Structure formats: structure tokens, C-alpha cells
Amino acid sequence: MRLKIVQAGDPVLRQVARPLSLKEIISADIQRLIRDMRETMHDAPGVGLAAPQVGLSLQLAVVEDRAEILRDLPAEQLAERERKPVPFHVVVNPVIRSQSDESVDFFEGCLSVNGFIALVPRAKTVTVEFLDERAEHHALQAVGWHARILQHEIDHLNGGLYLDRMRTRSFSCVENFNRHWTARPMAEVMAELGVRTER
Ligand code: ZN
Fold this sequence. Notes:
Elements: H1 22-25, H2 28-43, E1 48-50, E2 60-65, H3 67-70, H4 75-80, E3 86-99, E4 103-108, E5 116-123, E6 125-131, E7 137-143, H5 144-157, E8 172-173, H6 174-181, H7 186-193
Antiparallel strand pairs: 1-2, 2-3, 3-6, 4-5, 5-8, 6-7
Bound molecules: zinc ion.
């Protein structure tokens, strides 16, 4: 079943979500929710979806970067973003254990800020501990786009949106992004937008 995705301004997106117990994770209700969130993410389409985005303040997110979608993107864009297919996986009660000092800026959108996009600096590499849908523990080191997706989803679980971290001068509607900014080198885009990277 496809779920309704809530938009910025809904209070649930600003709440710190509550962790799930091991028993809850394997319950029929949460297993059904995971299936529905997967279907909702595919349908959107998106590369990640957090439970608060479907109105539930729970520490649960789904992630998948599908090869079918990447096939349609330019190879140099994929290389620059270190973007590779990520198989579907479930992230419960995640904690970022460590992250690289090095951060990178790329345009990022959100299904709960529909129709907009902005440059967001994110750590290039993160190590995340979490439980999966079988309540099994993982410590995952993610790089590039996968690291970005995880940081974005974990922000959601802590009441954050990319708007809190974005380079404000880069905020754009998707239509204007496609018209003016999409195909250009990042350094040139940042210079023209007057984005200052020291922070
Ligand atoms: Zn989002």
C-alpha cells in the first residue's frame, strides 16, 4: 500500500523519533510498514524514506538506489557523486558512529520538500550502526551518495530537514534547477550562486 508523504510544516517532521524495540521490529505491524514504505519510496520515486515522512515518529528508514535509475544518469555525474547502486536495506535506530572531516557539496532534494532542491554539504564517509528488519545489528561504512542518503534519513529521524544544513543561496525550485544549474560543474555553480564554503 502506498502511504501519504507529509510535507514540510507537518510537526512530525520536527520531532525526534522514538526507537523501536527488538520485539517491535519483527512484529507484523512493522514488517507491513516496511513493505509499504518500500512501495511508497519506489513509487515517488526516491532513494530513501524515513518513517516521520509518512507521519510516524519512529526510528525507521528504508534506503535503495536502484540500478535502473542510475542507468539514465550521465556517467561523469555518477562518478563525481560516487553514486553506485545500493540494494534495498532497512535502517532501524541508527547512530552515526564516525564521519569524515571531508565534506562535499551536491544538490539534494526531499520528498517532504516537494519541488525544491539545494546544495547541501555532507560528510563524504560515515560509519553507521543500526538494526535491520530482522533486528540484526550492523556497522556499515558508507561512502559517496550512499553516505549522503544515510545522513539525510538519519536527520529525518532526529527532526531535521536538509533545509537546516543547505547552502541557502542555492535553494531552487526543480524547474529552475533543470533550466539553469543541472549540467554545470559544481565549482562554477557555487561561484555563480555566491556560495561560501567555509563554515
Ligand atoms: Zn527527505
